[in-house]
């Protein structure tokens, strides 16, 4: 009997979900206890695996106590087992997932993605160009009130605590992916948002706006990393408003760059380019050469996706120039990630994209840049290293160096093992396709099979 037959023949009596012990386990999202209760009702591990789309080894690990925290996995479990979504706090999808979306988001989820992109672009332009957006008009983007009490009056110490938490959580995102820390980011944000209602000096409040904008930006980025695009959009919109209120142009530029990256991931380079260009206005106004370099590099990527090699090369050249002029020692935390290693990674990314979309000869520029990036990335940047290794392997495949490409592809998969990031699969898909095209080679075939199994 195969997994599909197992799933079809497995029927869980709806009354199972009504038992007090089960309801408590569901409310706490204690999947280990849920599975144990199912086993007591005669549902086998194999049947649970078939219904939830998990492997039997995963089900076994969960039964032994492994926690399930990623929203997409919880959602899949609820759907597969036919658990009433409200019992697990999943009833309102994006609103429950993000905890910071407004009442109109159920309707927004039904909108076409291109409409959502246009709405965000209009909102971003309104904020960036100086329109007043605080107040009632911004409630559609704002977070729901948290329950943890915040101070009635705040000082710089309170703001520094928010900044420190954001730095620590961002480091976890870089190393392990958004699925590892997003819930913690949202929880911190729920508490920090209340501080906006507290009293404090003008200087403290201004710095608080910036600190919360950065935290919202991180919430947006970690949401994007696990494919919660609507949640990401809401966080980035709120981040924009707060950064503008705090009069911090470099952060406005950084937020627009990050939302542009969401659209690149969705294969919408035209929409991404508009956000990058809007961010460029804020970056230039800020006088931050590093922020300008970040935007130039990503504009180059967008043009490469469109097959426009001339514009991509011009912008890569400007990226190098702006980076060389940048004051790295005094760069703000949210743009400091863009160091020399990241410059090489972006150069490699742009040339890889051109090699795939326009001219295969770009591999000769992509390979040395990506090699430098992969050599420099440490364990603390595991996600970035995975992306770079994957592109490096793809370039070797394109050049016909299949054995070496397969070897590097294996390293990319090893690096991806501990990541909780939905982006990894899409970013590595070009490598899988190149390996599949060369399946007459045993190394390529083995890599393709391993990747297919890994992302199943």
TrEMBL record:
<dbReference type="InterPro" id="IPR001387">
    <property type="entry name" value="Cro/C1-type_HTH"/>
</dbReference>
<dbReference type="GO" id="GO:0003677">
    <property type="term" value="F:DNA binding"/>
</dbReference>
<dbReference type="InterPro" id="IPR010982">
    <property type="entry name" value="Lambda_DNA-bd_dom_sf"/>
</dbReference>
<protein>
    <submittedName>
        <fullName>Helix-turn-helix protein</fullName>
    </submittedName>
</protein>
<feature type="domain" description="HTH cro/C1-type">
    <location>
        <begin position="41"/>
        <end position="88"/>
    </location>
</feature>
<dbReference type="Pfam" id="PF01381">
    <property type="entry name" value="HTH_3"/>
</dbReference>
<dbReference type="Pfam" id="PF13424">
    <property type="entry name" value="TPR_12"/>
</dbReference>
<dbReference type="InterPro" id="IPR011990">
    <property type="entry name" value="TPR-like_helical_dom_sf"/>
</dbReference>
